[in-house]
Every structure is written in structure tokens, then in C-alpha cells.
Amino acid sequence: MKVLVIGSGGREHAIVWKLAQSRVVDKIYCVPGNAGISDIAECVEVESKNLSSLLDFVKYEWIDLTVVGPEDPLAHGIVDIFEKDGRKIIGPTKAAAQLESSKVFAKDFMKRHKIPTADYKVFTSYTHAEEYIRLKGTPIVIKAEGLAAGKGVFVCQNYDEAIDALKLIMKEKIFGSAGDRVVIEECLQGKEVSYLVFTDGKHIIPMVTSKDHKRLLDKDEGPNTGGMGTFSPNPIITPELEKDIIENIIKPTIRGLKLEGIIYKGILYAGLMIINNKPYVLEFNCRFGDPETQVILPRLETDLVDIFMAIAEQRLNKVEIKWKADASLCVILASEGYPGKYKKGIPISGLDMVKGLEDVMVFHAGTKFNEEGQIVTNGGRVLGITALGKDIKEARQKAYNAVELINFQGMQYRKDIGLNI
Ligand code: AMP
Ligand code: GLY
């Protein structure tokens, strides 16, 4: 079987790595991929913004299954286009992907279906938004309505920060039309968890639990990022809490969409805040998390293709999914300046030393080969070093031992992933 994976991050490297172990996969393509992915898949440059070029590529190469990593192609309707042509593809349709692509849709949807989330209001007028912030006080959270590459959310501790965020979104338009509307919401304080499920629109299979570390710096200081590290399992999610999440968040979401005429197939990711042992939705994502996937897939024993085919054919209830008892932990190595501006093209040393280390996986994100054939940095998040261990402590030890072996100029990473759990 031939499989195509779309994307170029650590998440996609983890997906490709897992698919490469499948008993039924003969060939993997990745568009556009990265230096690490090119070890196990054929990386191809196809104008991925142009969805019909991707469909042409799939037809030309006789690809049997396409897996979409990032949210952008989903938000632009890649699944609708592929399914119309009878192609198997994993991910929700454009209508279903609105759960992530439109914060207003997601919040209004949660309100309609009584899914617990922070109180909010939507504004199109800067003046009204400013008045509301003055009225509500701080802390307060300001979100650009549309997709903003994970950067559209501002958790503001004081009035000045809130006004600065509002100006950036609504006046300076740093996210373009994604900032035409803002969602202003109550700041929830609790423990953050990531909860991901596979779903075929009828059945749900939870993945193992995980936790992301969104802030740039140790002790959860500094700006929000795409995620600086993860671990799995997340011990905060007790069996009772997990039941609550499934019954009061995941099932009502899939059911609510169905009631509105939308069948959600693919991966559903709920970013949750746990307050007094109760879950509240911070956001939905319509895809695998990055770097959650780098700790979830190494724990998966089942062939990922079996799961994907069952999603595509809406028979997920027929698949038995097995997970390893081991814990896993991932540390992201990022470029100096990330999540702001950063340089590219910096040589990375030590990759050979970590290759072959037992229970250690190096998932590439922003990397590429330079003209001399050296692997160099090519993005904000550069590498994700994942390790498996009998518990989080052991996984942490192994991951950080491997991190010590790698270096590039300006490399930054958190030292406290999985430390205070
Ligand atoms: P989102 O993209 O909506 O998940 O937001 C990114 C991050 O901002 C989340 O992972 C949280 O850390 C934080 N965040 C979002 N909404 C809230 C909220 N209502 N209260 C507190 N923190 C939030
Ligand atoms: N790690 C957060 C995300 O994938 O959105």
C-alpha cells in the first residue's frame, strides 16, 4: 500500500515513523517533509497550498491513503475534495474542521450543546472590545477568531497587555482577516491537559493521555508557543476524570455535530483546563497535536493503518487498539528567538550520536539538508527528542541524556518537561 503524509513537522515525522512499521505499507511519500522524514519516506515538493495539485499527485502515484498533519489543508477543504474524487483521506471535512478554524464557531457550538468552556463574547468593533475588557477586568484571554499558526491567543494579566493584544489583532491586523473578529473570554486557571481521540463519526477510541508545555520557559513562564515538550500518560487524568471528559465533552461534540448535519471523522483533540477535577474546553483541534503525537504514537502497539482504514470505513468499533505500558516524554529543541523571529540554516551536531540509542527517537521538525549535505535548522521548533521508559522519570532521564548530545548555535529548550507533575 502507498501512503501520503502531508506536513513537515515533528508530528508528521512521528506519523511517518509509525506508518513505516506497518505490515501493509510499501511506500510512504511526504509533502513536503523534512531532513529526518527523508530517511524513511520520499519527500516531494508539491504546491501543497494548491489542493488540486495534491489530488493530481495522489492520482498520478496511485496512492491508497492520505493522512493530513496540519490544520490548514483541513480548514481549506482537502478532505471534501479528496472524498469527492473517491480517495481515502484521514481528517475532518471543511465544515467539521471549523471546530478549530473558527473560534467563534467552536464557542457558539459549545454553548448550543452545553459543553463546558470559558464564558466569552465575540467582538467585531475595537471600541466595544476595549470597553468589555475594562468592564471585565484582568486576567482575561483574547483570541483572534481564525487560524493564526498557534499564535492567536493572548493570556493577559493586566489591562495594558490586553489592550496591546487587542491592537495587534484588530488594528495592526498581524493575523490578517483571522483577526476581523475577536473572542474575549474568561481566564481559566487550573491544570492543562491534552485529550485526543480517534473517531469515525460513530465510534470513539481515546488515545493515551498526554500533557503539553505551551509556554516557552521553565515554570510556565514566557510567551505561548506551539508546544515545548510533552509527556504521556498524564497522571492528572484519573479514570473518573477520563469518563467525565468522554461523556461531557467528546461524545456531546461528535453528537452535536451530527445533529447539525456534520460527520466528524479523523482525530479530535480537546485542549482542556481541569478545574476542581472538572474539564473545560480551551480549544478544539481537528488533527493530531504537535508535540503530543511524538509521545502518543511511540506508545501505540497497533498498526496505525488498521486504525486509519477503520476510520475511513466507519468501523472503528471493530479495531482493538493496544498501547504500551511504558511512559514517554518529548523535549523540543527550538531556535534562538522562537516563537518570534529566528535564523535558519544553522548546522546541527550530535545527530549521529543519538541515532540508535535504545528507546530514544529523534523526530525532526524544522530541519533540512544544506548544499553541502549537512542537516541544518529550518524552522522555530527544530527537533523533538522522545524517549520511552518504565515511568515518566525514566523517560525524562533518557530524553534529557540524549538532548545533551545534540547542539546547534542558539538552541533553546525547557529543562522542566515532566518535572512537576
Ligand atoms: P488555544 O489555542 O485556544 O488552546 O490557546 C492556547 C493556549 O492559551 C492554551 O493552551 C492555554 O494555555 C491558553 N488559554 C486559552 N484559552 C484560555 C483560557 N480561557 N484561560 C486560560 N488560558 C487559556
Ligand atoms: N501542541 C498543541 C497543538 O498541537 O496545537
Concise account of the structure shown:
With 421 residues, the chain is α+β, with helices and mostly antiparallel strands. Helix content is 29%, strand content 26%.
Task: Give structural notes.
The protein is of the alpha+beta class. The chain has 4 domains: 2-91, Rossmann fold, CATH 3.40.50.20; 125-180, 2-Layer Sandwich (Dna Ligase, domain 1); 191-318, D-amino Acid Aminotransferase, Chain A, domain 1 (2-Layer Sandwich), CATH 3.30.470.20; 327-403, Glycinamide Ribonucleotide Synthetase, Chain A, domain 4 (Alpha-Beta Complex). It is built from 13 helices and 22 strands. The chain has helices at residues 10-19, 51-60, 71-75, 78-84, 94-101, 103-112, 126-136, 159-171, 239-259, 293-296, 304-312, 351-354, 392-403, and strands at residues 2-7, 27-32, 42-43, 65-68, 88-90, 120-123, 140-144, 153-156, 182-186, 191-199, 204-206, 211-212, 215-217, 221-224, 229-232, 266-275, 278-285, 327-334, 360-364, 367-369, 375-377, 381-389. It has a 5-stranded parallel beta sheet with strand order 3-2-1-4-5, with helices on both faces. It has a 5-stranded antiparallel beta sheet with strand order 12-15-18-22-19. A 4-stranded antiparallel beta sheet has the order 6-9-7-8, with helices on both faces. Strand 1, helix 1 (10-19) and strand 2 (27-32) form a beta-alpha-beta unit. It is globular. The model has no long low-confidence stretch (mean pLDDT 96). The structure holds adenosine monophosphate and glycine (GLY).
